[in-house]
Amino acid sequence: MTSKERVHAALRREPVDRVPMWMWYHGQIYAALREKYGWDADRADAELGNDIRQVHVSINREMFRPLTPGQRFVDDWGVTWEQAGIYNQVCRNPLHDLPVSALADYRFPEPEAPDRFVPLQRLCERFGKEYFIGADVSGAIFEPAYHIRGMDKLLMDMVEAPEAVSVFFDRAAEFTRRVCLAALRFPVDWIWLGDDVGGQQAMLMAPDLWRELLKPRLAGIIAAVKAARPGIFVAYHSCGAIRPVIPDLVEIGVDVLNPIQPLCPGMAPRELKREFGKRLSFMGGLDTQEFLVRATPAAVERHSHALVCDMSAAGGGYIFAASHTIQPDTPLANVLALSKAVQAR
User: Fold this and answer.
1) Are residues 56 and 194 in contact, defined by beta-carbon separation less than 8 angstroms?
2) Nearest 5°: phi and psi at 132?
3) Following DSSP, what letter does each residue of 3-18 receive, concatenated?
4) Residue (of 246, 249, 257) closest to 282 by Cα position
5) What pLDDT is recorded for position 43?
6) CA pair distance 288, 293, nearest whole angstrom
7) Is 321 exposed, middle or buried (0-12, 13-18, 19+ CB in 10 A)?
């Protein structure tokens, strides 16, 4: 099977030659693989068994913009990023110090700007026949809003000024809806949405507040995507403990949930598979916070193989992946063990 065929079959609960896989490797992992094996990033993905190719078309692309340590950049949203540590971090939110009334005056970037989709077009042209192609339209609503307003201010606004936030979220959702529909002009296999609304122990907001302010807007985006192209898959990413709203995500049409952070309460992969596996596919579940950086390669292979067997049982619906980017402190032998576990399935 090609990678594209493999992922489609798994998501349709059809037989596959092996479980599909998609690991996100930090750039330093790719650099280490290049130094040791001479592989560029594309060769590394192929050698290690990745079946999905995806590119950002919205604000989260700025996390990966090439910057030198300490360099700052102001993006199209007016958000200032700085290369700090191993990632680009937001260091200035343009509306943070302004009154909540400023939300009404904020102007979002142009959703259909042609240069936004050039990397997606190139990805489809180069890999579209063989690989499963994703258009990453994250963050969808909450993430761009807190980049613009600041997490602390936005969460307070959601409680103290919900009417102002509702208008702001409406416009964020409309921006994302239009980006999604523009991305569907290309032969993508799924639309990838996401907002990190979970922390390590609980959601960042009360589940009922999420249902009031975010759920209906996310539902509208998903409905528009599926109306524009019936049969398209919609994946949704949120780190953290989001167990309370998983039934809501199923209800509004999410097909694939990522990343299943297993150290968070309520996010045990096998339990989620038992409860939701007939209605929802999963991508993730392999812990990167503790296990992958500390385990031996043999333990990684055993654990990964068991996870794959359990999560792909009873009809498939699973893509093997980790709970976050594979971090630079992960031993290369463990990276190779992940691929070996899948090939052994």
Assistant:
1) no
2) -75, 125
3) HHHHHHHHHTT---SS
4) 257
5) 96
6) 7
7) buried
Alpha carbons 39 and 57: distance in angstroms, whole number: 26
Measured between its terminal Cα atoms, the distance across the chain in Å is 15
Report pTM: 0.96
**Which secondary structure element, helix H or strand E, spans residue 314, and what is its range?**
none
Handedness of CA 240, 242, 246, 252 (dihedral sign): negative
Q: What is the pLDDT of residue 313?
A: 84
151 Cβ contact partners less than 8 Å away, ≥ 6 residues apart: 204
Structure tokens at 248: 């809501």
What does the DSSP 8-state code read for residue 146?
A: H
pLDDT > 80? residue 91: yes
Tokens coding 115: 């240069």
Q: Give tens-digit pLDDT for 136-183.
A: 999 999 999 999 999 999 999 999 999 999 999 999 999 999 999 999
What tens digit of pLDDT does each residue of 275-293 get? 999 999 999 999 999 999 9
- For the chain, the 3-state helix, strand and coil shares in percent, each to the nearest 5, are 50, 15, 40
